[in-house]
Design a protein that fits this description.
By secondary structure, the chain is mainly alpha-helical. It has a domain at 19-58. It contains two helices and no strands. It has helices at 2-17, 20-57. It starts with a helix and ends with a helix.
Length: 58
Amino acid sequence: MGAEIESNHANQQDLSLAPIDKQAEEFEDKLREDNMYLYRQFRIKDFMVREQNAEIQR
């Protein structure tokens, strides 16, 4: 158990060595990519539903 605590402490120290601004920037980039993926999926499904509705109304 002592080794596990020391390992966790070492991991926390490693994180603190990285600049916070860099971590925030990487997080924002990843979040932006994930959001764009979800937005594209939504637009594709929305387009498909609109096409189906247009065919039904014809």
